[in-house]
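Quick log. Single chain, no ligands specified.
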Amino acid sequence: MIPILRKELIIYALLLLVFTFLVHPDMLSNPASRFDIMKSRANFAHPLLYTGVLYFIILVIRMVGKWVMRFLKQKY
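-> predicted structure:
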């Protein structure tokens, strides 16, 4: 259970980083200003929520893909 949870947390964290840099490219040059903007607007949860929604979509796609592969490997 722990290795699966660790794997999924790594996937979630990588998605969070990728989406952060895709949506806010200024995080590479000046992350302090981006955090100041987040602090002034008090919107700390939106990156986690958006990443959670996208992670869930990707999780469903992975599960369907695994189900299809299992179905195709069945021997009749």
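The first helix runs from residue 2 to 23.
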